[in-house]
Design brief:
5 helices; 2% strand; elongated; mainly alpha; two-stranded antiparallel ribbon
Length: 179
């Protein structure tokens, strides 16, 4: 189930990125072709592109799309590698849980305080914080799903194997094999 939630969040992230790019294109057209000033486009683009990054993070964890330095894991046998990957996953989980907790508090403060961005456009701040809360909460849930999945101690171990890539030299930086 978490797999499909992460995929759904990734689709929403792709749409948010597309909308952010369109806002930038609109800003360029308005500013340089029409010669008019812009008010909302920069802030909207920042919010939507940031939302894309945050909402796409559970999918990146699911598919192993993160960058990993594999010098030490490649040098270890399966038992110590398993322990190292489990510890790394638990540390990642704890960090993301703390970030999710803090983001929920921040969202509630912005909501109850009626905070705005303070820009010329000056929209309420809480809608821009929703992707932070959703993204970090889904990332925590994805970490839990990866850790609790039998036989897969490392996040992204459930990702499909890449199509027979050439083996990399030990100590190289890899992206998890997913482009």
């Amino acid at each position: 189930m978490m797999r499909w939630v992460s995929i759904g969040a990734a689709i929403i992230a792709a749409l948010a990125l597309l909308i952010g790019v369109l806002a930038v294109c609109h800003m360029i057209f308005t500013r340089y072709v029409m010669g008019e000033s812009t008010t909302w486009q920069t802030e909207f683009a920042i919010f939507s592109i940031t939302a894309a990054m945050l909402l796409g993070s559970p999918y990146v964890l699911l598919t192993g799309g993160h960058v990993a330095v594999t010098v030490l894991p490649d040098a270890l046998s399966s038992g110590p590698r398993y322990a190292m990957q489990l510890i790394a996953a638990l540390v990642g989980l704890l960090f993301c849980a703390a970030l999710a907790y803090g983001s929920w508090l921040y969202l509630l403060e912005a909501w109850h305080g009626g905070w705005t961005t303070g820009s010329v456009w000056n929209p309420p701040l809480w809608p821009a914080l929703v992707p932070l809360v959703v993204g970090t909460t889904l990332l925590v849930t994805q970490y839990l799903a990866e850790i609790l999945q039998p036989g897969t101690p490392e996040p992204s171990a459930s990702a499909p194997a890449p199509s027979t890539p050439a083996p990399s030299a030990p100590g190289t930086i890899e992206s998890g094999g997913h482009d």
